[in-house]
Amino acid sequence: MVDKFFKKLSKKVGFLIGIFTLIFISGFPFVVMFFSSLKTERQQYTFPPTLIPEGGITELTLENYINVLNPEIFPFFRFFGNSFLVASISAFVAVFLAIFGAYSFARLRYSGRKFLQRSIILVYMFGGILLIVPLYQIVVSVNLANTHFALILVYLMQVLPVSLYMLGNYFRSVPYEIEEAAIIDGCSRIGAIFRVVIPLSKPAIIAVYIYAFMISWNEYLFASIFLRSPSLHTLPIGLEQLFYTEHFVWGRMMAASILTALPIIILFLGVEKYMTEGLTAGSLK
Amino acid sequence: MLKKLNLKFVFVVTLLLVLSFTINSVQAVEITFWSGETEEQRQAVIREMVSDFEAENPDISVEIVPIHESNLPDQIMAAIPAQQLPDVIELGLEHVLLMSNFDLLDVDVATDILNNIGIDDYFSGPIDMTTLNGNHLAVPMHGWVQGIWYRQDWFDEAGLDAPETWDSIAEAAEYFYNPPESYGIVTGTKADHYARQSFNQFAFSNNAYLFDEDGNINFDSPEMLETVEFYKELVNFAPPGPQDHRDGRSLYMADQLAMVVYSSFFMGTLESGAPELIEHTGFAPRMVKESEAVYGQFQSLGVPVTSSDEEKEAAQKLIEFMLTGDNYIDYLHMAPAGMLPVRESVANNPDYRDHEILNLFGEQHDDILAALEVANAFGFEHGQIFPQIGDISAQFVIGTAFAEMIDQDLSPEEVVERIQNRMMDIVD
Amino acid sequence: MLKKIINLFEKEKYLGWFLIFPSMLIIAGLIFYPVLYNFYLSFHEVIIGIEMSYVFVGLSNYIDLLTDSGFWHSVYLTLVFTFSTTLISTIIGFFAALLLNNKFKGRFLVRGIVLFPYAAPVISLVFAWRYIFHPVFGQFNYLLTSVLGVIPEPIAWLEMPRYALIAVIVFNSWRMFPFAFLMLIARLQAIPQDHYDAAKVDGATFWQRLRYIILPQMMFVIATIFLLRGIWNIYKFGEIWLLTRHLNVLSVYAYRTAFSQFNQGMAATITTSMFLMLLGFIILYIKKVLKW
Q: In chain A, what residues touch C146 (CB-CB under 8 Å)?
């Protein structure tokens, strides 16, 4: 009896230790980021490293956040605005194109459909670094260097394959009867898309939007090569520049990092449900 | 019905969005100015100056693009084929030569500007260092000198001499090396400009030159080897790994470093980051071993040949605007003692000299100005300019070799050999 | 007029092509065409001047590349990086999946936290990690020197090429483990409860259950993770470059060649070689996995 009790206890304790270790591994760098963002420059340089500065919690300060949001010191809002602009436009257009494309894959029959579907999977074998040299030359030669437009096109390119795949899967899992009924009632195909398929696929569509938004928001390589004017820079570029300025301040970097991550983490957590649903729907078949 | 309208509506909206990106309004002459001041606070000063300029010249509009000096070679190389060189570009000495090697600088405009401002007013150093084969490549803007900033209070307490000679530097570095509480000295050992600049001073103080009088690379001289040996020894008294001036600066301000090789910019840095250290800090710009060496650097403004005549005219107006009168003094005050005037009349101008930070550093400021006259750099040796220094410094040959030295524990001979070979490769 | 056009659209074929056309245009124009153009570029030397010019050099880029020891070192670094990161992140992900497969209070919250490293933008993470790897004040050095006593003196992890590999592996394993976790837990949760029940009846211990029930069912997912991460990690750029400039994995090597040395012909050669190696890997791997 006692034996069993200890076994159960040690199992529970082991489990709890495991969970806490997991939380620690995942969260520690964020905790460092958080506390660093609240320290002055002198407080960053302590040995041994501490999270809370000498003097306790009252010594923490918000000055880094204030400074980083001060346009005189760091044009955070400009970068944020650029990132937001580029990300939301690419996500919107991506969803738009992917809905139609995925519907085409899922519901319509035409020669070459299978071929197209297969070729889309091929794009998984290509990565940014493979494309950037030729794309750079192409973009320069058509005078689109240093524009948001070129960047949006690139992000579309990056997210469309996955979006088409995800939505295609999901659409196939939507029962065809409802659409059929609508079409028999005199609805056009496109009408059916808007009236039946889209409303029924909200989780997957939201997932695609979030995914496309995230990819654009986080992207660094193409943004750094395509965008020359600081007025166009996105957050990743702006943050990197901040790091290399003369008066770089650890606390400000951390504050800026947190502010940059916040929108994404909120979005991601808020709709994580939808994402996993969108990703795994259809594969349950 | 509604669905069809929806579709059209969406199309129109998307079209409008796309169009709004591509519409450009071209009214005034638009010029681009690549500024080396990436600091947002300094950018604010420049922006204000530029908008005053635009108010005075309503037919000109200026876009300011801040580019850090370490990125400049890459940005220049990227802009050339994309035809996106600016109309005014801020250049360090080596970058002036880099661009001139590609024949990209308009010397006529530069000469014109210098004459308008008054070429005789300029200190001879900056002018000589930006003139190649009788052509003025760019317009000198401001300069700085480098030296060793050190904790005077620590030195006094320990009874050590000021770090002006190799011996006193080494002695102090060893004395104060007590990790992790304190480190002795930080010199440049990363692949950047700072490493070359920091090493340069040691080299010149030992009469070790990069070029010989015929313009051949002469890095494998015994004097240079001796300097590299000394430089390597000093690394033992620095924090682990390759260092740059930012590492040195933060450590110094955190009260944990005895000496740091840094430019006269350090004055302003201390004032904003650790003002309590100002009274405990000394500056030694002249390094002595076989001779006395001061390292200095100038920033200039150049006008690329790729601009149109209108753009060059506008560029000229902008440069003359920024480099004269109160504007010039305001500009220099952005970084007190970090931006030293290159014209004698300005150096003596009470409006310039009367600045709270400059006053704090009183006599050191005069020392610094005096040092500016005799400041020198690799590539500007034996009374000549060797334009190859442009390419060499763009590739960070010296810094890279020192970083490798630390990473792979190379001997000084190996370091010298690598640098010599790589420089020869570049020059050929 | 409009009715006529709309009638036309109703024809399924046209509609099908019309709907997929814009997407295909973007994908073909921005992926397939550049890949081919890249291949073309790899046989040329691109000269930067006021106008870019292209000189056909045949195979000489490839010969120069294959005889360059820097290239092979880069290949070595890339392989070590990719394999180690995938291995470690899969192990951590597996650990997480096992734990989170149980229902407990706060499970949803923990699951959210576990996804942070993967969801957060890389640019947000690198500065905190640079601080963690700081040679004087960083927690990583503190852990290894003072706490665990594993190394005698702190190391400049991000500045020294020989140590940068380790730092980058640590960072990326941390960043990627949620991906492995998501894939593993989806499969784990699909294991029917009666398998476990049968095992319980037979008196199996946790480790036996792990070995005989769980692992066999997870093998395919694990193999897939290795394949996908293998492909994607080879192309990873930001996750390395933003942390340290001193690790020359193939993507960094190509980037430097293209944008620091402006040797874009050679850069195209490097990336084409990367692609060919990847292709070889995929073919070999799929054969091996299919035979599983």
A: 48
Q: Hey, what domains does chain A have and what are their CATH numbers?
A: 2-68 (no CATH), 76-284 (1.10.3720.10)
Q: Using alpha carbons, list the distances in angstroms from residue B125 to A252, B86, B131, B343.
A: 39, 27, 10, 10
Average pLDDT value for chain B? 88
Partner residue opposite C30 with nearest CB, options A49, A154, A240? A154
CB contact under 8 Å between B7 and A246, yes or no, is no
Model confidence pLDDT, tens digit, residues C139-189: 999 889 888 888 888 899 998 888 999 999 999 999 999 999 999 988 888
Kindly report, residue by residue over A4-58, the tens digit of the pLDDT. 888 888 888 888 999 999 999 999 999 999 999 988 877 888 777 888 777 777 7
Q: Do C35 and A190 touch (CB under 8 A)?
A: no
Does residue C147 fall inside a structural domain?
yes
**What is the secondary structure of B35-67 as a DSSP string?**
ES---HHHHHHHHHHHHHHHHH-TTEEEEEEE-
Same domain for C93 and C36: no
Q: What is the pTM of this model?
A: 0.83
pLDDT tier, A177 (very low <50, low <70, confident <90, very high otherwise): confident
A142 touches chain C (CB under 8 A): no
Q: Is A77 exposed, middle or buried (0-12, 13-18, 19+ CB in 10 A)?
A: exposed
- Neighbouring CB atoms inside 10 A of B281's CB total 19
Chain C nearest C-alpha distance from B256 (Å) = 11
Listed as own residue / partner, the contacts of A33-37 with beta carbons closer than 8 Å and 24 or more positions apart are: A33/A254, A33/A257, A33/A258, A33/C124, A33/C127, A33/C128, A34/A254, A34/A258, A35/A60, A36/A250, A36/A251, A36/A254, A36/C128, A36/C131, A37/A64, A37/A65, A37/A251, A37/A254, A37/A255, A37/A257, A37/A258
Please give the residue that has the higher pLDDT: either B272 or B426: B426
Q: Are residues C33 and C70 in the same domain?
A: no
Are the beta carbons of A45 and B250 separated by less than 8 Å? yes
Residue at C48 is within a domain = no
Q: Are residues C14 and C66 in the same domain?
A: no
Which residues does chain B have within 8 Å of residue A230's beta carbon, measured at their own beta carbons? 65-66
CA of B91 to nearest chain A CA: how many angstroms apart? 17
Q: Which residues of A touch C27 (CB under 8 A)?
A: 120, 123, 157, 160-161
For residue B92, pLDDT beyond 50: yes
Same domain, C254 and C177: yes
| Chain A residues within 8 A of B246 when measuring between CB atoms | 246, 248
What total of structural domains would you count in chain C? 2
Question: Is the domain of C189 the same as that of C114?
Answer: yes
Examine the domain organization and report whether C225 and C261 are in the same domain. Answer: yes
Distance CA C271, CA C66 (A): 13
CATH of the domain at C264: 1.10.3720.10
Most confident of A122-126, B364-368, C248-252: C248-252
Residues C118 and C25 in one domain: no
State ipTM.
0.86
Contact: C135, B251; criterion CB under 8 Å: no
Residue B20 confidence (pLDDT) above 80: no
pLDDT value at residue A80? 93
Residue C257 lies in a domain: yes
Asked if A187 is an interface residue toward chain C (Cβ–Cβ < 8 A), one would say no
Q: B interface toward A at CB cutoff 8 Å?
A: 3, 6-7, 10, 14, 17-18, 21-22, 38-41, 44, 63, 65-66, 68, 70, 75, 78-79, 81-82, 84, 180-181, 246, 250-251, 253-256, 265, 269, 272-274
C11: domain range?
2-41
